[in-house]
Amino acid sequence: MTIRATAAEEIRDILRRLGVPDSAFADAGLTTRSPIDGSAGAVVAQADAAAIEVSVTRSVEAFHAWKRVPAPRRGELVRLLGEELRAAKTDLARLVTLEAGKIVSEGLGEVQEMIDVCDFAVGLSRQLYGLTLASERPGHHMRETWQPLGPVLVISAFNFPVAVWAWNACLALVCGDPVIWKPSEKTPLTALAAQAVLDRALARFGDAPEGLSQVVIGGREVGEALAADPRIPLVSATGSTRMGKAVAGTVAARLGRSLLELGGNNAMIVTPSADLDMAVRAIAFSAVGTCGQRCTSLRRLLVHESIADALIARLKTAYQTLPVGDPREDGVLVGPLIDVDARRGFEAALEQAVAQGGEVVAGGEPVERDGVYVRPAIVRMPAQTTVVEHETFAPILYVLTWSDFDTAVAMQNAVPQGLSSCVFTDSVREAEQFLSAWGSDCGIANVNIGPSGAEIGGAFGGEKDTGGGRESGSDAWKAYMRRQTQTVNFSRDLPLAQGVRFDV
Known about the structure:
five-stranded parallel β-sheet, alpha/beta, 21% strand
């Protein structure tokens, strides 16, 4: 029998290979633990008020230099980052598995997402386009341009410990903005490793200003101090709705900008015409992938009453065969919850669901081993009660039934969150209604695809309590820049707009 190293031992080996400097660690500070087996990964130095001040000052100074660099040249740095990520993919993905508990393929997929965003941002660096506008005044040209904004603060969550930073950092860097990264205190080691990879790209780039990208480690108080700093014009925060509301209030008080990607309570509508084989596969990944700890995880299954019993039976069979365990092991599909608090939330939600008339039809019990493991649960609910309306960041799938498609869409929309949504149907009418203005109210709407697992080319984010922000693809880059309308008079006259006359 092979004796596997503890997660902590593997973590230390990877950190050394990736070149994380010894200065990142301390005798006292933030102690990290792997959710795989509870072993302590490292003790990380936390920023105090003086360190935060230094970081912001350096970022402001870097902005003055970086905004003068042509955007295609800025894109060259991101291209080099993509190369370094390709070289470090195996180690960085393994670190994601060890620190966040993702299965191996999901860790690799997260780093691939970083690489994909690099490719997108490199192309974007030559396409930061504006507009030419028609002027009503003779001999005048009007145009709209986009200019670098300033230092960007990225607050990321544990469940995507490196990809969310890449979404923001790659776009911010090509747009001319330095980046300060405050990672989750649950996953700081992946942040230090990603910064070490970027440092190699910076060394190859050669003339980037010091302080262009920085990692600031700490808890809530560090995030609050950074978010309150008026020298940071944009705060991009990913996490819970509670956290997002606190950040939004702090930033709004100083008239800064917030880009918020917060909670999701995502639903799948399954109609009588749906391909149930496809639906079961989509449900399984969407509901239990990352142990239900994705903002796009499937939490509500809205099934037509005529097929509900058959679909639940198939799901129970699928759930009974789900391998739960050490995410490093071949074949494991469900790794650990991030910590004991997450398990408490899982257990409390199940108790509430039963108290509100629900029936646990599969799973729900803890798995006895080192780390924090549970069996994903399926709960049949009589109605969309308060526990269903709340997002529990754990693998609980609530099943509800409907008889009328309009009612199903209304049920889907009747929660505070509005991130991702989907319908499984072979009816063109149902699909198009779902995608219409009176259909899904979410930022993401899919047909015959689960709600979890978005491509980087589309803007990612949602409405209502999800925060309204958009990251990654499409025109999300505009959030990292300031818009400027410019008018040039190339005539020898000085006509005023709207026919105003002011002769001196």
